[in-house]
Amino acid sequence: MKYENELVLKIAWYYYIEGMTQQAISDKLGLSRMKVIRILDTAKETGVIQFRISTGKGMDISLEEKIGEKWGLKKVLVIPTPSDPSTLNELLALASANYIEDIIGENAFINMGYGDTPSRVLNHLAAMTDVPISVVSLTGGVNYYLPNAVSSIFNARLHLFPTPLVISSEEACKAILQEPSVQEIRRMIQLSSLSIVGLGGMNPDATIITNGIMNKNDFTYLQMQNAVGDILTHFIDENGESVKTDLDNRLVSTSLETLKTLKNVIGIAGGPNKINIIRAALRGGYLDALITDEETAKQIL
Fold it and tell me: How far is the C-alpha of 188 from the C-alpha of 262, rounded, in Å?
C-alpha cells in the first residue's frame, strides 16, 4: 500500500510539476502507459492533485459586466462552454468551488442548497480547502449533502436538517419543523456568510425527477401552470413568482422569502434547459451572484 501511494505521488509529480509526457513516465518507471493514465486519474479522484483556477477576472468580462449591470448582481462568473455537454455541471461546480474557496474567510459558514451541482461544489470545496469549512443545509434530505463515493478528502463540518426533504403529510411536516434540532439549523442559515443554490429546469432528466421527488405527470401539471423551474424545490414562473404545488406544505426547505433575506446568494446553473429558470431567478431578485457558462450567458441576455 505504501509503495502504491508513493507511486501515485511520484507519477503526479513527474507529469504536473516536471512536465514529463505519459510515455516518458512509462519508460522511466517501467510501467505501461495505460497504468500511468490510470494512476493520474486516481490522483485526481483522491485529491492528490487539486486544480485551482484563478477566477478573479472571469472568462468573459463583457458578458459578465452586461449581466451584472442588467440585474444588479455583485458577481458574475462565466466559464467556457464545454464541447461535451455532459461535463458542464462538473466544470461549473469546479469553477464555483475555486471561486468560493478564494472568497471565504476562516470560520465561515456556508449555506448549501439541494441538487446535483451544489453537491458537486460541496465535494470539490471540501477536497481543496486547507481548513475545515462549515456547511449548513438549506433543505432536508441528509443524503444529498454527504460525501460522494470517490471523496477520500472531505474537509467539511456538516450542519444538516435531520429530516427528509419531503414529509409524508402536512401535519407531520408542521410538527417536524417545530423540533428544536430543526429550529437550530434555521437559525444557523440566517447567520451564514454566503449561500449556494442550484437552479432546476423543467427538463425530463431534472434532479427532482431522477431522485423520485416528483413524477413526470406532476412536472407536466407544473408546466401547465407556467412553471419554468425551481429553487430549493420551490417552483417559480418566468417572472420569478411562486407557483404553488402539492409539495409545498410537506417540504423541509428554506422559503423563497427567506432566501431573499440571505447574504451573498450564489446561483449556479448552465445549459439550454436552465436559461428560463436563470432568467426567472434574476427577475425575482433571488440571487446576488451567478456562475454559468458562455453560451447560456449569451442566451439569458
Answer: 11
pLDDT digits (tens, 9 = 90+) for 221-271: 999 999 999 999 999 999 999 998 888 999 999 999 999 999 899 999 999
174-215 pLDDT, tens digit each = 999 999 999 999 999 999 999 999 999 998 888 888 888 888
Spatial separation of the C-alpha atoms in residues 112 and 285, rounded to whole Å: 18
Q: How far apart are the first and last CA of the chain?
A: 53
